[in-house]
């Protein structure tokens, strides 16, 4: 049944968010026959993260062959793309499939209410002019991502107000900042720091990466020679499928090996770094993490650009605790002083699932932190709704595509069998696990009390193995623990 048979709703499907998740949802819903939808975006431009993040060096930290849309494969031989290139690719995809015509910008979702009596969602949006819009729908797809676009993570830097230069967080990069021939201190050691430091080093006088503790770093080539050959010799779709499985299978094997044999993984990763370092820079303490490989996501350099900059004397690394910020830089607890004209606080994001939207079920407030996550995509007790989440250890888009395919199949099943409502129900046998996340990244740990619970049961746990999840949905009872009405 679709909106033509349900004249009491405005749309069959409301999609919230116009990033990779929202564009994917629009495509898959568009493949269903006679289902109406619209994508509501809080900002004034589609693209999500790739529209919001504009700092120097912003790029994919996953390969583009698995990060790209399955229905519009990446056709270039570069396995890594810059942020503006990814944004253009997303826009081109939306236009190619007429998804852009379904996007309504400047609409921030504030309230989502499900009525069991009416079997529909009522979504309230705040528009840029301050007015409100109310839309009813049968289904809801939440493609809001996982981080807060308004607030970043700012750990305390003692006496930072005494600093005479600009103190910048990459998430809110100002257009007018001039770092050419300046000394720059980048506080942080995660993916943002690893990507921004070598880029700044191209123009800055000196860039110092100030880290409390190091992370595991590896490298990949910007241009993939195998991809270049396959894209030249094979039909595009066949080449894209082969490249997808090459990259995903290699990553899956690497994760399995490094988690099963952490000492082996540690030797492999640190062996690469040791060969890249200048002779005067020791491996320990700068590149010996406190955790095992893949307890946090790996950081990637592109063609070893970070270490090339270090060997050229353009980048240095300081490891330890910060004592205080002074007018001219950063003083460390061990007495080292990092001179800086500019301080960049690449200290991470704040996690914010569902975009901070208030959800009520029959007028009762829904608490995300008290519910279980079903198959990494639906919420216990929440009808006709899906949360578009990707994988934390693999490319985000893989999880998005799996979610969209599953939910669209669910919608078709309901239409064929005459159902109007589907709800995941966690029975009393579902028990919370003490280790809900496949990663221990800081932004997840900080937000653990606000995120859905995970169980040991396969369907009530956080997803972390794309290939196994793909097989499970196709081979096992794909509708286990779902209640239809």
N- to C-terminal distance = 13 Å
Number of helices, counting only DSSP H or I runs of 4 residues or more: 12
Q: What is the CATH first-level class name of the largest domain?
A: Alpha Beta
Shape: globular
User: Which whole number gives the mean pLDDT?
Assistant: 92
What is the radius of gyration? 23 Å
β-strand percent reads 15-25%
Helical residues, percent: 25-40%
Instruction: Using the coordinates shown, work out and report the CATH topology of the largest domain.
Output: FAD/NAD(P)-binding domain
| Total count of domains | 2
Number of strands: 25
The helix/strand class is alpha/beta
Could you give a short account of the major beta sheet? 9 strands, mixed
CATH superfamily of the largest domain: FAD/NAD(P)-binding domain
Residue runs with pLDDT of under 50 for 5 or more positions: 1-6
Quickly give the CATH architecture of the largest domain: 3-Layer(bba) Sandwich
Cofactor: FAD
Pfam families: Pyr_redox_3
Organism: Meira miltonrushii
GO molecular function: monooxygenase activity
């Amino acid at each position: 049944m679709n909106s033509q048979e349900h004249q009491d709703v405005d749309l069959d499907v409301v999609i919230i968010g116009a990033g990779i998740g929202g564009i994917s949802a629009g495509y898959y819903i568009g493949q269903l026959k006679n289902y109406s939808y619209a994508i509501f975006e809080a900002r004034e431009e589609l693209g999500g993260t790739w529209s919001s993040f504009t700092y120097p060096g912003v790029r994919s930290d996953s390969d583009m062959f698995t990060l790209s849309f399955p229905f519009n494969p990446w056709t270039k031989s570069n396995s890594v793309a810059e942020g503006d290139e990814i944004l253009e690719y997303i826009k081109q995809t939306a236009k190619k499939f007429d998804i852009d015509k379904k996007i309504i910008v400047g609409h921030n979702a504030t309230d989502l209410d499900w009525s069991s009596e009416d079997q529909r969602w009522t979504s309230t949006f705040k528009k840029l002019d301050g007015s409100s819009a109310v839309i009813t729908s049968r289904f809801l797809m939440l493609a809001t991502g996982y981080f807060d676009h308004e607030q970043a993570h700012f750990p305390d830097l003692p006496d930072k107000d005494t600093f005479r230069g600009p103190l910048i967080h990459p998430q809110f990069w100002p257009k007018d900042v001039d770092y050419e021939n300046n000394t720059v201190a980048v506080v942080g050691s995660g993916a943002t720091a690893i990507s921004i430091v070598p880029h700044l080093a191209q123009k800055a006088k000196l860039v110092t990466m100030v880290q409390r503790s190091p992370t595991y770093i590896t490298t990949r080539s910007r241009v993939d020679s195998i991809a270049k050959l396959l894209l030249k010799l094979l039909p595009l779709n066949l080449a894209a499928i082969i490249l997808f499985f090459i990259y995903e299978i290699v990553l899956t094997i690497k994760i399995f090996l490094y988690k099963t044999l952490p000492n082996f993984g540690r030797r492999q990763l640190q062996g690469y770094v040791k060969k890249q370092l200048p002779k005067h820079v020791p491996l320990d303490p700068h590149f010996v993490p406190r955790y095992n490989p893949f307890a946090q996501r790996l950081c990637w350099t592109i063609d070893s650009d970070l270490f090339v900059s270090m060997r050229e004397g353009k980048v240095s690394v300081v490891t330890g605790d910060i004592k205080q910020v002074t007018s001219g830089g950063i003083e460390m607890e061990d007495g080292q002083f990092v001179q800086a004209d500019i301080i960049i606080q690449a200290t991470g994001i704040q996690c914010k699932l569902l975009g901070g939207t208030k959800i009520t079920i029959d007028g009762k407030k829904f608490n995300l932190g008290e519910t279980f996550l079903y198959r990494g995509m639906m919420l216990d007790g929440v009808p006709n709704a899906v949360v578009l989440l990707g994988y934390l250890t693999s490319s985000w888009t893989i999880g998005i595509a799996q979610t969209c395919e599953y939910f669209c199949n669910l919608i078709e099943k309901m239409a064929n069998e005459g159902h109007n409502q589907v709800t995941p129900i966690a029975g009393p046998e579902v028990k919370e696990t003490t280790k809900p996340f496949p990663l221990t990244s800081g932004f997840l740990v900080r937000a653990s009390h606000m995120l859905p619970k995970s169980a040991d049961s396969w369907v009530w746990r956080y997803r972390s193995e794309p290939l196994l999840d793909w097989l499970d949905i196709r081979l096992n009872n794909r509708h286990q623990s779902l209640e239809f009405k």
